[in-house]
Specification:
alpha/beta; 2 domains; two-stranded parallel sheet; 4-stranded parallel beta sheet; about 50% helix; single chain; 8 helices; Rossmann fold
């Protein structure tokens, strides 16, 4: 935001318990309702952006013309589909898998592209994130992807969770773009804001 829209007012709300609940119990009706309510409130008069892939679908369900909401990884999946039908999609949490793959299928369907993604789970990296060790987190993600990428020959590498962007500089697959959501998601939100 500071780079792309310097000085623009913003509010940031952190709800640690939502991800924990989604991981432990799945997306209940109660959790989905709480997320929709919070996103509607945050988006009123502007645009709401959900930065968590695991709960992104519930957040986007709050979308309205007066309070547009977007998940940060929607623009990421749109970019992945533009790069070809064989994305390598990396994620660190099992709770992220279904929402991420559903989003990719939705975006690909709307674009008329038949995608054949390969998923790389980087579960071993997540404890580093929880400990606040972003250096080890990024290295563990890059190592997991590197083990698979050479043989997979993907059209692009997709770091499905916003927190995974720290691994981007550690990945250097020749000729394979590495896509992350923070910048793409903010650009999408700014586009929504301009059109609102």
């Amino acid at each position: 935001m500071d780079e792309l829209a310097p000085g623009m007012a913003r509010r940031h709300r952190v709800e640690q318990g939502w991800l924990d609940e989604a991981r432990e119990k799945g997306m209940s009706d109660e959790l989905s309702a709480a997320i929709r309510s919070a996103m509607s409130e945050l988006a009123a008069g502007g645009v709401g952006v959900c930065t968590c892939s695991s709960i992104g679908g519930a957040a986007e369900a709050a979308y309205s013309e007066t309070a547009p909401v977007v998940r940060i990884d929607r623009a990421l999946m749109e970019a992945a589909v533009e790069h070809g039908r064989r994305p390598l999609v990396a994620m660190c949490l099992e709770s992220t898998r279904a929402p991420t793959m559903d989003l990719l299928a939705d975006v690909a369907g709307k674009a008329g592209v038949d995608v054949n993604p390969q998923v790389v789970m980087c579960e071993g990296a997540w404890p580093h994130f929880e400990a606040g060790d972003m250096d080890s987190y990024g290295k563990a993600i890059a190592a997991a992807i590197t083990r698979v990428a050479a043989q997979a020959k993907p059209d692009c590498i997709v770091l499905a969770q916003a927190s995974m962007a720290c691994a981007e500089p550690l990945l250097e697959p020749p000729g394979v773009p590495v896509l992350t959501s923070p910048r793409l998601g903010v650009l999408k939100a700014l586009e929504l804001l301009r059109s609102a």
